[in-house]
Amino acid sequence: MPGPRVLLHAFPTFAFGGQQARFVQLANAYGAQFRHLIVAMDGCFEAGARLAPGVPWEAVPFQNQRGGGLANRGAARALLARLQPQQLFTYNWGAVEWLAANLPRRVPHVHVEDGFGPDEARGQLPRRVWTRRLLLGLAGTPVAVPSSTLARLAPGWWVRPGRLQFIPNGVPVAAAFPARLAAADAGVGAGGGTGRGRPLVVGTVAGLRREKNVARLVRAFAAAVQAGTHPALRLVVVGDGPERPALQALAAQLGVADAVEFTGYLPQPLARLSGFDLFALSSDTEQLPMAMLEAMALGIPVVATRVGDVPDVLPPLAHAGLSAVDDAAYARVLQQVLAQRPAWPAWAAAGHARVREHYAEAVTLARWRAVYEGRFSAAGPQAAAVEVRPC
User: 93-103 burial string, b = 16+ CB within 10 Å, else e?
Assistant: First the structure.
């Protein structure tokens, strides 16, 4: 009897973020059907802590040479020859050397493009566009994207329609939603925040990196506290990353340190997410953020920057929670949303329905299973042990 299909995944980092959250979701759902070899270009394997015990996986050491260009191509190609996976998956620009390493084609390959870092938040860099055209378009590499925004950009990389598959992220739809909605109708939020004297919990789940711009949220929260928008406000920031010390200093500088909780890395962030009264996304760039989908599935209203697919995901009824990608605009929208709490149950119901109808986990799992099995289709909507630790 043949063993599980062996897949090699080359990530820029395996620290926990949206891209890694989707991989963990898929790997846990498929269990022992696939064996995953994981390369992290920065040597961080934090997300491995969230993989279920029954998932066969291995953190593969790789000596990343930071020489610029394609400095790691030869080493990556040698590793492909030694490991001989049945399929290679590369993720985002940070794995571009692995795209080059598999040319001429050594193993079947799918590139997964989830979006852009801070250096391309305002627009694509021409050098990277041409590199994508060469390594994706001209090479005929199949590309999977989770957002309609990226699906519209991919032809600019010369990716042919038959080589492009749009697979929206999907999340479980919470069975607990009716109870949350009943509580909201009764004037009591999930965080207990709409009753007299109880804090209203505004929260986010994000990697604390520049492009997530949680500083924008902290400033907006401080402005709402100063304006007295609600008698007791609390901000919960779930996640960790290089920006955390600066964010904590900012909260102290703005006089709201006692009202802001930085939880750090949590292996199971959903428990904290479910306690939010309002989910806040303040990113400079996103595509189809899973944390926002999870919040909507739980029946939590959303305030968010107008980035990527976010305006398409939020139902029109809840578009009052959309902001321009600008600090002043975001602070203004947050205060307006906080003043519209009677509308939140309707926003929550519409958001829950949108996720149930368009972003259910079962559809995502079925389509990614086909890709993992080597059945890439454009059909559908347009070896040494490595310590797993927080990074």
Answer: bbbbbbbbbbe
Task: Name which residue leads in pLDDT, 192 or 170.
Answer: 170
Residue 137 DSSP label: I
- Convert the pLDDT of each residue in 363-391 to its tens digit: 899 999 999 999 986 544 443 333 444 45
Which residue in 110, 115, 87, 93 sits closest to 164, CA to CA? 110
What superfamily in CATH does domain 177-358 come from? Glycogen Phosphorylase B; (3.40.50.2000)
Contact 235, 343 (CB under 8 A): no
Angle of helix 18-30 relative to helix 361-372, nearest 10 degrees, comes to 80
Q: How far does CA 233 lie from the centroid of its chain? A: 26
- pTM of this structure: 0.78
Q: Is the dihedral of CA 207, 210, 213, 218 positive or negative?
A: positive
| Residue 132 host element (H or E) | helix 126-132
d(CA 298, CA 175): 8
CA of 275: how far to CAs of 32, 105, 365, in Å?
Answer: 33, 48, 27
Token output for 334: 């947050």
Residues in the chain: 391
How many angstroms separate the CA atoms of 38 and 58, rounded? Answer: 6
Q: Which amino acid is at 180?
A: R
Do the Cβ atoms of 195 and 188 come closer than 8 Å? yes
**Which residues belong to CATH 3.40.50.2000 in the chain?**
5-170+361-372, 177-358
